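User
Class, as today's exercise, I want you to study this protein, comparing sequence with structure tokens, and judge whether sequence predicts the tokens.
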Amino acid sequence: MTHTAYRRSPHFAEALQAAAPTRVGSVASVLGLGLDITGLDAGVGDIVTVGEGTAAIHAEVVAASRDGIRCMPYGRVVGLSAGTPARSLGRPLLVPTGSGLLGRVIDGLGNPIDGKGPLISGPRVPLDNESPHAMQRARITTPLQLGVRVMDTLTTVGKGQRMGLFAGSGVGKSSLLSMIARGTDAEVSVIALVGERGREVREFLEDDLGAEGLARSVVVVSTSDEPAVVRLRAAFLATRIAESFRDGGSDVVLMMDSLTRVAMAQREIGLSAGEPPATRGYPPSTFSLLAQLLERAGTGEHGSVTGIYTVLVDGDDHNEPIADAARSILDGHVVLDRKLAVSGHFPSVDALGSISRVASRVASRENRQAAGTLRKVLAARRAAQDLLDVGAYQRGSNPMVDAAVDHQDAINNFLQQGMDEQTPADAAWVQLHQLVRMLESPR
């Protein structure tokens, strides 16, 4: 090989890069949740190694200025001090993809934590990715079975839709997600547990999800004690894995618990980076980040990612900033009611307060009419509830109220469902039509 040909070969480029001097910066300050580093040429999103040897930790650049860069560490900062050396890897976080992830549990950075050995995954790809182009998204025309009767019929979800489960703490969001993971007919489930209590992770995997649900799932876990940037990256990692399956033509359901804790993590990062607090202390970047995250789900040219996101409403206030912002972006919302939960009604779905914005496109006319009839009966019962409570309602005043009272047990049996009970969507519609015929028949 001639000297000129060798200089043009890829091996020469690799050797030249390996022989290039490494620029070393240093920690200027360790303040709050972040590190200020000077002397490094790194952009926002790049990974920086701080420290030497086994004590080194990785950090992500979240802000940059002429004086240096601001980084959020992926690990604990105990022992770090001003002057600690830092080096840029010159790239963003790379995450695993591929069918080898099925049945595995990984952390927010893509490392296995289930004790099953190293990941057998496809190529690692950058965490960041573009949302599907608005004009290239396939239209949502096909329903997605969730295995939960009240959702499959009264708030029918389409493949590629984005739904929110809105509820306060302890109302059954995680249990409902586990039912969906076991009952859905999607080919792949990607589950992100963001900001969960460490105690609940194993309980969710073994008791709620089970071996059957885990076998076709990828679970991403970032507990509440981990750094904010790791919790935030767990949400984007789960989304990126779901996107990789969608790019392969699969129909994926992406379940994230919870979107509120993702917003809280971004609030910690934004405030630490110097952003001004806005609505209830959330910096402006929080609301733009929610849109960036949620828009990445949906249909592609071939496959789909159906997003189901839990929203932990603050103090059961469904109009608080994160809930309001999420509701405006999502394609529908399911409200879980605390009064139903404490009365033993599971799933505690408030059917009248829940809506799917694509149900009219994915359900047949007959099915929509049946769902509408049950909604009218439930609404009539709710409007007359005060009169019923005090015994002032006169039978015959409203046929729908009469039907609701006469068939209350049948209605509750349809709306309620056991944790281990799985009902295919076709069977759920058959049961709904039977219930509607019962409600419409004279007693």
